[in-house]
């Protein structure tokens, strides 16, 4: 049987800094969905103003 991991390179990185958020579990779940391309709603919060841009030259 062929080893599926044989061609993959594994890299380890040490975090220099961390960003913490106070949005709670709903915010974290939304960001995970957003980064996975599975967000199906807008996120509304009194603590955060989240803006997404597809073209930074229009800011």
Please outline the helices and strands.
Layout: H1 24-35
Walkthrough of the structure:
The protein contains one helix and no strands. The longest helix has 12 residues, at about 25-35. About 20% of the residues lie in helices and about 0% in strands. The protein has about 60 residues and is mainly α.
- Tell me the distance between the termini: 53 Å
- Helicity range: 10-25%
List the total number of helices: 1
Whole-number average pLDDT?
81
Counting DSSP E segments of at least 2 residues, the number of strands comes to 0
Shape: elongated
Radius of gyration: 17 Å
The share of residues in extended strands comes to under 5%
Descriptive key words:
59 residues; mainly alpha; 20% helix; 0% strand
Summarize the structure.
This protein has 59 residues and is mostly helical. The protein is built from one helix and no strands.
